[in-house]
Design goal:
The chain has helices at residues 17-29, 42-49, 77-86, 104-113, 125-141, and strands spanning 2-3, 8-13, 36-39, 63-68, 95-99, 117-120, 143-144. It has 151 residues and is of the alpha/beta class.
Amino acid sequence: MSLVTKEVVILIAEDDAGHALLIERNLRRVGLNNNTLRFEDGQAILDFLFCRGSGPHRRTDTAYLLLLDIRMPKVDGVEVLRQVKADLGLRKLPTIMLTTTEDPREVAHCHELGCNNYIVKPVDYDKFSEAIKQLGLFISLVQVPDINGKP
């Protein structure tokens, strides 16, 4: 296990460019200077993780942590979560749902599928910024396992 440091790449699956930028800025404000990769839809993050298509692919020698929005084009975050947690090679990938959806059934469903945490994005800008700062502090304490095996 390795602590979240510069070698852990934070994957941000978020279709809203403003939210993605806010997430990155506030993670940096709390001292998380990890590399980040952003994906604008669920299909793009799946292609990256499962090494499909012509875009970038995950590396087996790199630790990742996934921040996953639910409402995204092409493939929604719940389906991304389902596929990731159903895969023997990827199920250890720490996955934090970061979404505006606060339906208790959706929260329960995501936990049943294996998400590690579920955070509701506040609508208010200042509250959203504060929530991301708190998330950054949480991430700085999380131990991230390597995803072993070939993609």
